[in-house]
Design brief:
Two copies of one chain form a homodimer. By secondary structure, the first copy, chain A, is α+β, with helices and mostly antiparallel strands. Chain A folds into two domains: 5-170, Alpha-Beta Complex (Nucleoside Triphosphate Pyrophosphohydrolase); 182-245, Winged helix-like DNA-binding domain superfamily/Winged helix DNA-binding domain (Arc Repressor Mutant, subunit A), CATH 1.10.10. Helix content of chain A is 26%, strand content 30%. Chain A contains six helices and ten strands, in the order ββββαβαββαβααββα. In chain A, strands 1, 2, 3, 4, 5, 6 and 7 form a seven-stranded mixed sheet that branches. Chain A has a three-stranded antiparallel sheet with strand order 8-10-9. In chain A, a hairpin with a 6-residue loop joins strand 2 and strand 3 (40-46). The mean pLDDT of chain A is 90. Chain A binds chain B through residues 1, 6, 8-9, 54-59, 79, 81-82, 84-86, 106, 108, 110, 112, and chain B through 1, 6, 8-9, 54-59, 79, 81-82, 84-86, 106, 108, 110, 112. Chain A binds a DNA duplex through residues 186-188, 203-206, 208-210, 224, 226-233, 254.
Chain lengths: 254, 254
DNA sequence: CGGGTTCGTGTATTTTTTACACTAGCCATA
DNA sequence: TATGGCTAGTGTAAAAAATACACGAACCCG
């Protein structure tokens, strides 16, 4: 057992973020330069991902790789699927890029998809001119709005789709929604988040009734300040209470 | 790309079966013999599993491996988790066995767990004296009752646990239950199946009300014959109707 | 023909879900 | 300091879904 990279196994991370308005995903740039020269042949977008080391499990590798590429550290991260199509890297553009960076384009690679949810305002990404990254990968990590993404590398568009589907199902039964929200949030903010994830609108009064019934969402004696309208009450998620109550069925929406 | 085995990646299959009474799982025997001789040092139980080939995706590999080991062919098979603990093969018994069959016990192996559901009476397993299998693995595929399994190889007990948990969640939202039943089945049979999977009893009249509300469970004009009690009506699952209706939410139990 | 077994069914009560509209509070600005 | 623009916060009635519960009918066997 050693710390070398395993050329057959990689992880790719789909990091969703929410800025209290819309749903975003964290992507890097991949560049292909002319051999020797600096001329750019193409650039496109990738999910943060890389090969695992032989002494790591997949979860550890996902944490490490995400940190190395984006500076994000110690965040909720969960495997949601494995992508193992033998032809998943066979697109000519990808083959060309792999060859250019010195990999064998024939090598079989399966990748484990990880997904994560973070409150956008809480984290700072590495800056554009990240010195530790080579000039062909891992540049310019940025948040992209979900409905405005084009031109993704490899099979990453499919991985992203799959992650979104997984997220939609997951929020129906587990309290992962709170991973996307700041520690304290208003009822409207969490309702809007459900709406952008599910792509449909919800009834305000009914939503608040359900919210009020969840014992693990506790209402704080604190209100918004400085807003140009009635200030809203803040709520927070109590993991303690949830752990004690989680046998009960849990629905925030129907 | 070639057809060699990939020493880093395997699949293991958890095949659940239902004999209209209890829930079973399909296991093989693993033997360790004294070097050279025929003396048996130990034998224990394993899930059917093996390494993938470099030109297969995981789904294909799972189908192939299951067929080679048990003769089961073309059945519903779905990945449910990946097990990637770097120490998952480090138990001395397992290290000894790996060395004995000529593998490097140091090699890092991650495994994809697949699960399947089949109506027990429909399939015939390879017989004990299967000639195509070596004498240290893949012998004697048999159905084992879930609550009476001891002594499993590697981390297979954990994989099995994880599969059962997955099954319990899955039957709550997708019509996989029908994969465990014969084509035609009675209301009591499907209710009993839910009960053995979930480990709790359900109310007969309420269960049947819900069953009657599922348009994709169609009632046949056919009854049991030769039973020593009121003959029960048969039902069947219509995948056609399900596909057309599946946007609707689906619960058979609550 | 009697005993043993499983089948099949209805109703009343409680809980959950849905649909729906107006006043109150804060800021900005005129 | 009055007004306009904006979002917060709230209740009720009707419909749908979930629950609890018991007994006669049909068949085989001996």
């Amino acid at each position: 057992m050693n710390t070398a990279f395993n050329e057959n196994i990689s992880v790719d991370c789909v990091i969703f973020g929410y800025d209290l308005k819309s749903l975003k995903v964290l992507l890097l740039e991949r560049h292909l330069h002319k051999a020797g020269g600096k001329d750019l042949i193409f650039k496109d977008l990738t999910l943060p991902g890389n090969h695992i080391r032989n002494n790591e499990d997949l979860d550890t590798a996902a944490q490490r790789i995400l940190f190395e590429l984006t500076g994000l550290n110690d965040i909720y991260l969960e495997q949601f699927a494995v992508f193992s199509d033998p032809n998943r890297l066979d697109n000519p553009k990808d083959q060309q890029w792999l060859a250019a960076i010195g990999k064998d384009p024939q090598t079989r690679v399966i990748t484990a998809g990880y997904f994560s949810l973070i409150p956008l305002e809480k984290y700072y990404l590495k800056q554009n001119g990240n010195d530790t990254m080579p000039d062909w990968y891992g540049k310019n990590p940025r948040w992209h709005q979900l409905d405005r993404i084009a031109n993704m590398a490899f099979d990453h568009a499919r991985i992203l789709d799959s992650a979104l589907q997984f997220l939609r199902e997951k929020i129906m039964s587990k309290p992962v929604i709170f991973e996307l929200l700041p520690e304290k949030f208003t009822a409207s903010q969490i309702q809007n988040l459900y709406e952008v994830i599910l792509g449909k609108t919800l009834d305000k009064r009914n939503f608040r009734k359900k919210l009020a019934n969840l014992e693990f969402v506790v209402s704080l004696n604190e209100k918004q300040m400085g807003v140009a309208h009635t200030p809203a009450r803040y709520y927070m998620f109590s993991r303690d209470v949830y752990e004690r109550k989680k046998k009960e069925k849990f629905t925030l929406i129907t």
